[in-house]
Every structure is written in C-alpha cells, then in structure tokens.
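MODEL INPUT / OUTPUT PAIR
PAIR INDEX: 1
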Amino acid sequence: MSHVLEPLARESFSEEDLATHLGSLDEAKPATVTALGDVWHMRNEMDASSILENFDPVEDGPYISATYEVYEVGRDGIPEAQHTNNGDEEGEVLEASTVWETLREVNSGGASVGRMTILQEPSPVMLGAAHMTMKRHFDMDELFQHLASTTGNKGKTRAYMNRAYETEPLKQRTFFFVFKYYTVVGEGLKPAPWQAYDSRPPDRRSPDHIDITECSAVLALSLGGKPKKTVKSRVRRRGVAMQQGVIYDTFAPWHLLSIQCFPDDEHSMRSEESKRPFYNGPYAFLDSLGVEYRDAIKRYLKLNEMITKLITPPNHFMFDARLRDKLLFEDKDFTYSRRYFWAYNTLGVINDGIKSMRAAYIDTFTKDFWAGKHATLWPHPEPDTLEGGAYAGRMEVLRQELEAAMRDLQEVYDKNERTRTEIRSLREQLFSGSSVKESRRAIEQGDNIKILTSVSMIFLPLTFVTVSPPLLQPTPTH
C-alpha cells in the first residue's frame, strides 16, 4: 500500500520571529489587515515580550470561544495530538501563549510526514501566528482574502482545486475549499468583527428576531517536495500559448490547515480515540472535508427549525379567537408581512448556498478522480496496479461518506423549499383576509359618506341649496 515516506521539514519559531513578521506587513492585502485587526494596527508597537499577552481573549470579548487542534501524522497514518489544551473546557479562556507553544514547533521528533492545524473562532493573534508559521506552505494572503473578505461570493462555497496551471509555485502545490454560509450565533458568543451580523440589543429584539451571522471557513492542503511532472493544458485558443503546469506528488509530505469562523460552538472536535489512518495528505483533506459538510448540515437544519418555528402558529390558535384574528388580518406594523418576507427570502438565500456547496463537491471530484486517474488533481502514480486498486478502495470509503453528505444536503434543500411553500400559503391567506377587511372598511366608509351627504343637505343654509336666479335678459335694442 502506497504511503508517505519522506518526513516533514523540521521548523521552529520564536516570539522574535513572530514580532518581526508582523512588523513587516506594511503592504499587507486588505483582507489580511481585516483578519489581523488590532494585531496589524499595533504591529509596530509590540515586541517579543508583549506580542502574546496583549491579545489574550477576555471573558466578554469576541474570541472567548477560540479553540484549536494540532495533529502530526507518522508513516503509519495515525494522527497524534500535539495540543495539550485547546480551550474547550467550560468556562476556560484560551491563552494566546498556549496556542503559540504548539504552532511554533513542527515535527520536532523528526518522524512526522503530515501535520493538521485546525483553528476555530481564531483570535487575530492566532491568525497572525498562522500567517507566519504557514507562509512557506500556503499563500496566506490568498487564504485570508477568501476567509475575511467582506465582498465577493457572499454565502457561496467555492472549490479552488485546479491549481496545476497557477503561475506561482506556492499556489501550484496548494488546494483549498472556501465555505461561506450562515449560522445561528451561539448563546453569549459574538461573530468576528468582519462578519455580517444583524446585531440587536436584547431589549430591542422582537419575537421575529433570529441571531444569524455570515460564517466562513477555509480548508487547505499543501503538498511538499519538488514537482513530480509537468503537464500541458488541453485548451487551445487562437493567439494564446498552450499552458504548462506542474503536478506535485500525491504522496508527498503535507500540511493541512483548517480555519473555521463559526461563532456557534457547533464544531466537530476530532476524538483522541479516533485512529482512522490518513494514508496521505489528500486522504486527510477529504476526511476533513466530510467533517465540514456534516457540520454545515447540522447548522442548516437548526436554521430551518428556527425559521419554521417562527412562521408556524402555536397549536392553541384553534381556541383563541384573538390569535386567529392576528394571524388572518395584518396589523398597523405589518408584523406578519415582514415576518413572512424575511423568512421566505432568507430560506431562498440559504438554498442558493446549498446549491453552491453541492456544486463545489460534484464538479471537483469526478469519476476519474476517485479512480486515481485525474489529469492534475492528486493522481495515483500507478492507478491500474493492485496497489493503485487498494488505494482506490480506501478512498471509496471517503467517497461514500461525502456522497451521503450530498444527499443530506439535498434533503435540507427540499425541506427548505417545503417551508417556503408553506410561507407562501400563509402569506396569501394573510393578504386575502386583510384585503377583505380593507374592502369592507371601504364599503362602510362609502355608506357613511352617503348618509353624511344626505344629512348635510338638510341642515345646510337655504342659500346653498336653492336654485340660482335666471340670467338677466339683455336690454332690447331699438
């Protein structure tokens, strides 16, 4: 069975390295500046002794739920935890120095062939540390551009996997998914400052309000070593030279980076007891991709449940005439029209996101890919051999899991559409009832005007109701 043989390069970083790196980011990309926040703005005021302690999360701050996990994978494929404390204990606030002590050392034992770094609700200093420690393996500005950008594909998941023809070697060796969708903010939690959020103080929240925020994640893989072979693009265009790209070894030493910004405490933490072997970097990526999709499904189902509850009348409406009238006739504040409009269109936006999430997977991982015969995406060196067949069999397990997630996503999509149909029905009933009420009011007002006119004719002064005198006759001429 093919597996990774070459170890990861050993790396070690100091606080001085971190301070120097952050101080050098004067020309940082806008999204990097956004992601790093105060760490970037104060980069020239910090030194090695203060860079970590100045940015510890506080109990009422936006990064109180920050967690992380780091695993190194040996030649047997078994991930071994490197973090001793991830801040996931109830009431515990994760200190920046705790994360740094793990991120700063890579393959210190010399036997690891892969490394998985997972940052959840990361604080700016955690992102700053990742920006430095991962810069040899990823274009971190590119990843931050997709993670923290406030423009672009809002609410849409995208796959950036066809990288062989990128012009920069760093991009040619990296592959990533960007997840963009929506979630319900967890109790007592806050989204990152750059995430869209309809924030309302508790005393101003109406029964119609649901704390929804835009959320995002980047799952990225970097393959090490030198390019395995060159490839030429099959696309031919007049006046344009044929593109030449490179492919990195599918079984090269690897780094996996997962940055998750979901302020809801709904993450799937990896279990210390899970001993599924990661045969190579692509296998670890696909396993993590399945985790991301399953977490997204949980969030989508919770959103559907809360929106359905918002628009569904309570059962006791059958016995409450006043409640029935409220549901049938619109009030002066257009309460139910506003509620139905928001719920109907929110579910439409969510379903657009689900379509993009399914398309990102289906369009990327084709039949050739799963057979290990894709031209540029992680091809097996000998797919038609017994060893290639054994590897494809192990990948088939991940394929089944991911395709089950695609079916579950389709079920969530269909469930949202059924809820939208129900909302349309409720909206039409409301419109019908309110229209009848307004028509009756108009008729009643018309009858009142007739009565008022008749009474006025009786009581108006006589001079206003008598017939005007005839016109004066012209003087006869002689």
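PAIR INDEX: 2
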Amino acid sequence: MDLIAGIINLDHEQDLLEELTYFRCGAAVPFAGRYRMIDFTISNMTNSRIESVAVFARRKYRSLMDHMEQGKSWDLDRKRGGLFILPPDWNDPTDLSRGDLQHFHNNIDFIRRTLADYIVVSGSQNICSIDYRDVLESHKESGADVTVVYKKVEELQPEHNLAHKLTIDDSGRVMAIHNDHQSNNVYMDMYIIERDYLNQLVENCIAHGCSHLFLDGIKGRLPDIHINAYEHEGSHALINSVESYYRNSRKLLNESEHDELFKEEFPVFTKVKNEAPSQYAYSSNVTNTLVANGCTLEGHVEDSILFRGVKIGKGAVIKNSIIMQRCEIEENAVLENVILDKDCSISSGRTLIGAPEKPFVVAKRKTM
C-alpha cells in the first residue's frame, strides 16, 4: 500500500477574520461549538491513515501550538512520524528562498526522510470531510504530475471571489487555473503529489527566484505539466472572512448540513477537555442551538452556537449568535447577530445587535 504524508501549509493564508484573528492565526479560530478550523484538515489526514503531518506556521501560532500540543488528540503522538509543528526557523545564511518556499526549503528534511511515497498539501480554510486515499487513487489512475481537489459550487458566494478556479476538460485534466468570478469550479487549496517530484519542484522554484510553490511551481507551469482534477462531492465551506465564518457556522444548525460534515464513520477530532454537562435552568428556553458542554443556561437562546463554559443569565435573550468559550452574558442582556470571541463579558441590560449579512463581532476578553 502506498503511504501518504501530510503538509498543512498555513504560510500563505491571510488572517482575514478581523477581530477573530487579532490574537491567533485563522487555523486556530474556534468553529462549530468545540473545534478549531485546523481540526477538520488534520482529522481528514488522520482518517485517511496519514501518520506523519507537518504544519507550516509563520505568524500568530502560539494558540495553534497550545491547541495541538503533541498531536495526541489525532493519534499523532508517535515514535515514528507523528505531528511536526514547524514555525519559522531560517538559520541557513545561504538560503535564497522566499515566501512559502522558505518553509519547504528549510524543512526539506521532512519531505526527504518520510517513508511516504506521496505528499498531500492542504490549507485550513476549506472545511470538509474528505478521504485522501480516494484522491490518491484518482491521481495514480490519471498518471498526472499533480492532482488538485476542487468543489463544483452550485451558488457562488463572496468568499469564492478570493479562491482560484479551474478550467477542466472532459478527461479531468486541468487546462487553466484562474480567478474568474463566474466559474464554479472552486479550487480547495489541496493537492497530492509524489514525494520526489515535490522535492524537485521546490529546488527548481528556488533556483528561479520564485516565492510561492503552488502559484509558481504548479499553476505557473501549465500546460507543461499534467494536472488532474479530483471533484469533492461532499459538504464544503470556504471560510476567509467574518461573513463567511458566520454564515457557514450557522448552516450547521440545519441537521442535514451538520450530519454531512460530522460523519460517524469519519469523525472530527479535537483537543479533549473534560467538563461537566451543560445545565438548563427552569427559566431557560433553548431552541435550534448547538450547545457544548460546561454551559449554564438561564435565559432564552435560539438559532445560535454556544461553545464550552458559556453562561447565560436569567432574562437574557440570544438570537442568531455565536458565543465562544467562557463568555458570560448577564441578566436581561440582548444579543442578536453577534459573534463573541473567548472570555467576553456582557453586562446586565446591555443590547448588541448586528445585521444578518454583517454580524457584530466582539474581540477576545472584552467587557461591555
């Protein structure tokens, strides 16, 4: 059986979630009540029997490292392989690499020493459930140099304007990679490539003064290299703005959308925190809401997502909102279309109302 190793490349991802990325990179942003965005990427790799994963992180990675620790939650605390969190460490005075190629160059030993025959490279902004073994089979059958993963989106959203799109022929070969806002073949920032060929690409790109492996080494070499397209047909969300984060989070309140992402046979793993079950007072009224453990609820909550340890006071009203860990909303406060980052406090009687298309965001540890 061919082995696969994983690289989660956060180097080129911009922190576009405004207040939610003041103190953390986008991959560490909490999502869906108890997870971080990177949990979905690394769980896909674990579920695909990938036993060696490297994370390329350049900035604001303290929260990410605290969350991932040694990789135990994803069964990656191994004697061979396992999880490697690789922040910047440029010690080679002769290094001419730039951009994300710095990470590939300075950590080339991860690629050269792995026992895997193939490497999956992925970002963290595409939330989905995918088996990379299926992608590998498509890659081998096509005889391609690289296989990229895409989603055929039925209804384009503003976040898709920032994503690359694909033009694909009838055989599944990629003919062009572009930014056409009318195209619905959205590149999911995932590709699979043979280990030795990846090593060659990195060296060649650096020798020619390139700065981005995918843009310069893969996209920039069309049509000289054979790029195969693999269509992902399951659940998919691209999160690269506050608006896309809010909309795609609340989609999970739909049972079918939730079950399509959180499959029983393909679980999403995260850092384990042992807390008591949530408590619902007689005065509480909670409808159509995701509630994590450790919450204390005395008020009215509807169409919302509550993370661990949230406290809702008596008479408080929470609608269409996302309340992250350990936030406290005191009595008679009103929140609608609001995102509260971790450890926020909303005083008694306070009213915060955002718009459905532009939620009101409160940064981490704020008191209002």
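PAIR 2 NOTE: The CA atoms of residues 304 and 320 lie 5 Å apart.
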